[in-house]
Q: What sequence folds into this?
């Protein structure tokens, strides 16, 4: 059995490595992903608000008011009152202030950012007048990039698992290669395991490469152990690959397989917490999300990376993923069709 | 010893009965030919036996037992239309398939026998039609099979390549391997097959050795003459007459009298031929249509 699995595993790897276009896409995409993330989330801190300061000269005197020393606000000197009003009206500025007499400020009542910028201005006015006591709470912020990185890696893994395996099997079935294998002693489960193993190797290499790259370029947070994170990724990839095999078990055309794969991937992308947390979502949404393997992968990865969860902490999720893998693999092997008709 | 037995195989598709209670036995060590025109049901029959197409009903026995894993391990199959993995070389393809079996043939010997020595490092996708057929045959031999299925193996090959293929099949059979050949080339069947079964519209219509079948049907020879050379009808000729591809064919056991009668009805006999009947004639007679129709 092992010999047959290794024979198909090796042949599939050779096929993948020599398919230059597919190989380069699988390498280029993670590199683009890594540098895209570095570009989007790297670099200096960005201001949240834009405030115009109406004055005569070009030089902004930051000492004239404590508001001008506030963080996350970009101050822009405005010399023309009408131009300033126009930019407020069009939400291109959140607030326009004038510290020269008569001291005034202008805000667009429909602008939510203008509302908060106004509060910040009044806060700084109060601080000047009444000397509000200040208390400090320290702690490193969890940056969005730290939170979203597992989501992006998981999403990339999901697409690679489902489409990578699904399309290949449908192509093999369509061109008759599966029919040829059917006439050998190879069992469906042996073929299926070989396909999973081959894709798993590729996915783990690529995901590790992207993770190491983002760690290096973005200094992403890692509170737990790398072994635990690796196991989460490994078991998660097996579950997603098994799901891909189940989808491809009977599909006879790329069009049908594509539709079915989209049916699985899009709900996972929306409901598994790739881009935003689901803590505030309705209970039923969270219950539906728990069916998807990607939800367990992302929750476990974030627990390890952000909260320092141990292998024991994520064991229940790993067991769920393994259980899903067994179910998907068994169903896939049982439903497996060697021929298009 | 019976190597293979098909018992009442039936394959019913929604709109067509492709195989209709087909039964036959194949003795070990012979070449058994399944003949018939395209669409006769021979490929479906063979694929049911190979286990790649499920039968609606019927059974297949391999050396007296229901065909199972032992059959898969010991059978070599060359499909009419199949694909191999892209980007693999000929050598890698052979090694991959060989590792799927417990039985192993000597790859070097197979490569030599199938004339693949110079193609071992070539990508499967870059092989010509004839080279692909030789690779398909080599793949069918990697497990040192006791039984080899060849499904339309010479379709699309040029005459020289066909003759080379026939020699190769004879070499395979020389060590006792049983061959089951499907073809619509009657000359191929006549040269290679010890026994044949002729199929038409899903049924076997004749079965036996080519010589036996021809002897049973014909005690006569066939006279051929272009229809254009006839001056009128053949009313007074009582022998069996067939028209095919612009020729009139007269089956007779009295050549002298037939020639005399023909001379009175023909413009000339310069293009007349006399020959022994062959399987093509037999098929025409049995079904009323050409094998390649």
A:
């Amino acid at each position: 059995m092992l010999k047959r699995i290794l024979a198909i595993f090796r042949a599939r790897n050779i096929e993948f490595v020599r398919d230059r276009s597919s190989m380069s896409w699988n390498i280029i995409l993670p590199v683009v992903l890594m540098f895209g993330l570095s570009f989007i989330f790297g670099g200096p801190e960005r201001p949240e608000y834009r405030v115009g300061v109406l004055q005569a000269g070009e030089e902004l005197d930051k000492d004239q008011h404590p508001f001008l020393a506030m963080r996350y606000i970009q101050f822009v000197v405005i010399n023309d009152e009408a131009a300033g009003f126009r930019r407020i009206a069009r939400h291109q500025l959140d607030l326009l202030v004038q510290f020269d007499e008569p001291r005034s400020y202008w805000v667009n009542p429909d602008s939510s950012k203008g509302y908060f910028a106004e509060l910040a201005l009044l806060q700084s006015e109060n601080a000047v007048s009444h000397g509000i006591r200040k208390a400090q709470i320290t702690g490193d912020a969890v940056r969005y990039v730290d939170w979203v990185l597992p989501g992006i890696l998981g999403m990339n893994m999901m697409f690679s698992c489902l489409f990578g395996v699904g399309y290949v099997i449908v192509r093999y079935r369509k061109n008759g290669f599966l029919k040829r294998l059917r006439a050998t002693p190879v069992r469906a489960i042996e073929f299926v395991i070989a396909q999973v193993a081959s894709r798993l190797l590729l996915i783990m290499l690529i995901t590790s490469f992207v993770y190491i790259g983002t760690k290096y370029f973005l200094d992403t947070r890692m509170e737990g152990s790398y072994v635990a994170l690796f196991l989460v990724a490994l078991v998660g990839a097996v579950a997603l690959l098994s799901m891909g095999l189940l989808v491809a078990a009977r599909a006879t055309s790329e069009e049908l397989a594509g539709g079915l794969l989209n049916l699985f991937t899009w709900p996972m992308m929306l409901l598994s917490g790739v881009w935003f947390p689901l803590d505030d979502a309705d209970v039923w949404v969270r219950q539906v999300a728990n069916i998807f393997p990607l939800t367990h992968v992302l929750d476990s990865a974030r627990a390890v990376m952000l909260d320092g969860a141990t292998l024991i902490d994520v064991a229940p999720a790993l067991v769920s993923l393994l259980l899903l893998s067994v179910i998907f693999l068994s169903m896939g092997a049982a439903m497996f069709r060697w021929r298009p008709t | 010893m019976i190597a293979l037995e098909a018992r009442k195989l039936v394959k019913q598709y929604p709109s067509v009965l492709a195989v209709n209670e087909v039964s036959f036995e194949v003795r070990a060590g012979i070449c058994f030919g399944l003949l018939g025109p395209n669409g006769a049901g021979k490929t479906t029959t063979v694929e049911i036996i190979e286990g790649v197409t499920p039968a609606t009903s019927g059974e297949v026995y391999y050396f007296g037992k229901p065909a199972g894993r032992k059959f898969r391990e010991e059978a070599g199959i060359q499909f009419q239309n199949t694909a191999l993995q892209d980007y693999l070389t000929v050598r890698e393809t052979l090694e991959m398939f060989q590792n799927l079996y417990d039985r192993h043939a000597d790859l070097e010997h197979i490569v030599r026998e199938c004339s693949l020595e110079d193609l071992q490092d070539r990508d499967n996708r870059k092989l010509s039609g004839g080279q692909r057929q030789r690779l398909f045959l080599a793949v069918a031999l990697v497990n040192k099979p006791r039984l080899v299925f060849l499904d339309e193996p010479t379709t699309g090959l040029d005459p020289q390549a066909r003759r080379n293929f026939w020699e190769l099949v004879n070499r395979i059979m020389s060590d006792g391997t049983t061959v089951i050949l499907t073809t619509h080339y009657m000359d191929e069947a006549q040269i290679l097959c010890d026994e044949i079964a002729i199929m038409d519209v899903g049924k076997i219509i004749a079965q036996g050795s080519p010589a036996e079948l021809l002897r049973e049907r014909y005690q006569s020879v066939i006279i051929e003459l272009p229809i254009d050379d006839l001056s009128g009808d053949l009313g007074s000729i009582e022998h069996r007459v067939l028209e095919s591809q612009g020729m009139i064919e007269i089956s007779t056991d009295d050549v002298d009298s037939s020639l005399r009668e023909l001379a009175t009805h023909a413009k000339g006999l310069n293009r007349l031929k006399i020959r022994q009947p062959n399987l093509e004639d037999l098929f025409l007679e049995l079904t009323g249509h050409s094998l390649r129709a």
Q: What stands out?
A: The radius of gyration of chain B is 22 Å. The mean pLDDT of chain B is 85. The CA atoms of residues 4 and 62 of chain B lie 5 Å apart.
